[in-house]
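User: hey, got a sec? need Response regulatory domain-containing protein folded
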Amino acid sequence: MVVEDDVVIALDTSDLLESMGAGKVHCASTVHQARQIMEKADIGYAVLDVNLRGETSAALAHSLRAARVPYVLASGEGDGSQIDGYPDSVIVAKPYDVSTLRRGLEAAVGKMRTSAATPAD
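Assistant: Yep! Here you go:
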């Protein structure tokens, strides 16, 4: 799933994911649209824009984490080291290419596996 409010970036990201072997790529431009997609579709992983015209994707990131869906944050702001409200998330800096996106998603899958292997307190 791609959650991005810029239609050109959303389509480019969808194309990149398809070139990486993704089947159906769902696109949403708001958190509400993304939640509707999550209710109806099986999401394997997600690319989330951080800022979505007046809202952030933080709540969506937390929902994806709770559902054990790996995701990366796409941001054109900051140094990409960490973003408030998104603890321990993998960040890919915009603009990104297929290799950067692939590495980010692989890291996100690895984090999800690591957190699944760690017993809860």
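Quick note: The longest strand covers residues 71-75. Let me know if you need anything else on Response regulatory domain-containing protein.
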